[in-house]
Design goal:
With about 220 residues, the chain is α+β, with helices and mostly antiparallel strands. It has helices spanning about 1-25, 105-115, 160-165, 195-200; strands at about 70-75, 80-85, 90-95, 95-100, 125-130, 135-140, 150, 180-185, 185-190, 215.
Length: about 220
């Protein structure tokens, strides 16, 4: 009997060991290494250069009170700079003191300054640029989007002035637009052919003068 029992145990033990091995949880496979995620590369910051200073170039423009001008004397930075024309029409420069600037064009003022500087500098090279117009205005009345004064720029035309005022209203009578201009102490009435000017007839797109009043019935 004992030998029979030993035989049975010898037969069962290997089977139990195999079952136990099958029930053990399988070991987790090693996790695959995740590729390193690099931080997003930002584009380089490129500094934006400041806008170049621009001047209003017009040799026929007559400088007036409160206008801003830039006087440049070549190789003389201490004599160059931005100047405001005072209400008395004068500007003030180093070495030269007060100089009359109003009622002169930029080229005329350049020549005058250069002539004065010859006492101190050999062959001075002077340029004058109008940078801001504050003295010259035209006026718009009637059926325009914005009634009142508009700063005049060199060579400003009728259509440009109306555009600066926001254009005409829907009630504007384009056939009766006119310009009032002070000529020799008298008000001259200049009729305007607006529609023809608008279609591209440049001869009818009149150039304005300081003090003009555009009337839109």
């Amino acid at each position: 009997m004992i030998s029979g029992r030993l035989f049975i145990l010898a037969f069962l033990v290997p089977g139990l060991i195999c079952v136990a091995q099958d029930q053990q949880p399988a070991s987790k496979p090693a996790e695959e290494a995740q590729p390193a995620v690099s931080a997003p590369v930002m584009p380089p910051v490129v500094p934006v250069p400041p806008a170049a200073a621009t001047g209003i170039a017009n040799s026929s423009y007559v400088i007036g009170e409160s206008d801003m001008i830039t006087v440049t004397v070549l190789k003389e930075p201490t004599l160059s700079g931005n100047l405001l024309v005072r209400p008395d029409g004068m500007i003030t420069m180093p070495l030269l003191g007060d100089i009359k600037a109003s009622a002169m064009t930029p080229p005329q003022l350049s020549m005058d300054i250069a002539k004065r500087l010859k006492k101190y500098i050999q062959d001075p090279n002077v340029s004058v640029i109008l940078t801001q117009i504050n003295s010259k205005k035209v006026y718009l009345l009637g059926e325009v989007a914005k009634i009142g004064p508009v700063e005049i720029t060199p060579g400003m035309t009728l259509l440009e002035a109306i555009s600066s005022a926001g254009g005409l209203t829907q009630y504007a009578n384009t056939r009766k637009i006119y310009i009032l201009r002070n000529a020799d102490g008298r008000h001259a009435k200049i009729p305007v052919e607006y529609k023809k000017a608008l279609k591209g007839n440049s001869s009818l797109n009149l150039t304005l003068e300081p003090g003009d009043t555009i009337v839109v019935p």
